[in-house]
Protein 1
Amino acid sequence: MKGSEIKSAAEQAEMKRALLEFAQKIEHDPFQPGFPQTGLFPDEIAEIIEDLMYVRDFSEITIKINKEDETLKAEVTSRNK
């Protein structure tokens, strides 16, 4: 295999992985109220907000964020469409 073919195959595999992860997030809502997410960093909090506001189309969300040692814990307490 040529280098470009190897790179193309790796990019296709990564795209399939990303699409599968996205599909699983859509099917299985991990951000339901009352289920805390632990061990998070600030950029992951931003991903939760993006997921709820833009992917799942909620117009209003309330998130409780606590600091745990070096990471954060986030819990969606309410969300409205």
Note: The chain is about 50% helix and 30% strand.
Protein 2
Amino acid sequence: MREIPKIVQELKEIETKGGLGVEFYQDNFSVSKNNEEDHLYSLNTQILTNESQKPKYDSYNFQDLETFLMHCFDFLDLYPSSAIIIDAKGKIKYLNKKFLAWLGFQKCDFVDRMFFSSPFFSSENERYLISNLLNQDKENKYTPIELIFKKADGQKLTGLINVNPLINSQDKVIGFIIVITDITGLKIEEETNKITQFYKSILENKTIWFSVSDLSSNVVLWNKAAEYISGYCQNDVLGHNKVWDWLKLDTQSDRGLVTIKGHTKIDNTIISEDYETVIKRKDGRNRIISWVSKMLFDNYHNPTGTITIGKDITELKKNEEKIKIQNEELSSLNKNLEEKVKDRTNKINELLTQKNDFINQLGHDLKTPLTPLMVLLPIIKRELEKPDKIEIIDVLIRNTSYMKDLITKTIELAKLNSDMIQFSIESVNLSNEIDFVIKNNMFLFEEKHISIVNNVPKDIFVQADVLGLREILINIVTNSVKYSSETGGEISIGAIEQSDMIRVSIRDNGIGMEPEQIMKIFDEFYKADDSRHNLDSSGLGLNIAKRLVEKLKGNIWAESEGLGNGSTFFFTLLKTP
């Protein structure tokens, strides 16, 4: 075997002759030989190309991988890290002694074998990672990666991989040097630290009970939370199974079992349970615990013990019980309230029925004596000649008419409050019905000097009862007439489509309303200006219109910009599809 300094000297000579440049340096490592320390020169695994000088090819010129291996074989065999050399096609050309000793393989196992099919890769994922690394562009930096290797005996080790391409004088990659640093010990130390920290956190946890028992229920681990919840410290419980009897209630067995919430079985053996128990603490107080128990197994799947994890849910259970009692009380109150509301509703309905019956009967009783008065007073008026006598009769006729109108509308309102009225719903031409109402009340408009215009399109049809629709229109229009100016006014009627409804608007330029009046305008017996029209209005017309619109599944409302600015009444009806 040639000495390392001699190899280095030969490489220096190649460099000075203009051949392939080789960067080398003296490492800090040393090997002991005959109780003496000989500093070794190590070859840097990256081969450099000298672009400023063209190489001169001679017996030491590294033009191919075989030449490189021939001159560096002895050196690489003494290299302190595991090293592999593969050609550009991925075939293994060399493995040093360190690598073979590390994984326990023989060199003959890899002669002319493809690198990616080597048995030392632990999985396809490892092959994929190293393949991606080798396929990088040679100009890029090859980032070290960690891979898991499999030894000949199956044991797994972790290595840090550094890849460097071998480039000849023609700037062509002729192979790769792969250097592997064993970091298994470091990874084990890291994992050990993680496990240590994990178990430390378990042991010091003061919220979640964590204990481990062997097959005889002897306690082998008891954390801070177990101490806090049970009242028994580690010295009280470790090494025996008496604590499970101590925790039992006097009236319970099986560790105070309350509820088994679920379990998992394998071959009829329960390996996991989810349950709740009541335990008796060392100080005699009871606590409710939610448990999860899991069986432990060795590497041969033989049971070795049990892990028990618990959480004190006593306060949670108390709160649940409080909530349960409160819900029961609330349910009882709701039930009593529903019964009271139902009873009051029945009484109110009964009173409303009695009221409607009374109004209906009173109306008929009052209409009977009014009928002859309405007939006889005009006759008497024609027979009188003195003006003062005629004026008296006019007062009587006007008051009698008012009483008749009031009684008629009161009876109609009573019927609307009950189920006595049956509507006949049909498709109605809205514009035609408005024309009908205008024509039949023209004398009223002329008398009051009112100009009324129907702007409703002829093609609008609504779902309505004809008589009910006419009553709505008459009540709103006559209301506009009553509250128009003394010198006359204007009324305009329009309609527009809104989705499946028709919105009707009736606008006047009368005295207008304030917000307080708008809020009350549809109330029973309400009059916007009681002093001006005491005998001209019963205060029921708009309320009747509202009841009729609602019976026809519509809405009604009024708007006004204030006194002196007129009012607009809106109502909606279902559009004929």
Note: The first strand starts at residue 22 and ends at 33.
